[in-house]
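Tutorial, part two.
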Amino acid sequence: MLAWRVQQLGEPGDVLPLHHVEAPKPGPGQVVIDVAAAALNFPDVLLCRGQYQERPELPFSPGLE
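Running the prediction step on this input gives:
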């Protein structure tokens, strides 16, 4: 599957390359949902910059919405 992945902190247009990643495998009682589109919002921009209150470990895929 394809995923936008932040490899280093900075402006989203500079730090969000598209990567091929392994599709997740659902565990017991879970399902995988095929997402056709997703939005990024201002908190995601702050997340990419490292300026949001949460700072996930790199690399990560933003998506707070």
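The first helix runs from residue 12 to 15. In part three we will examine how such features are distributed along the chain.
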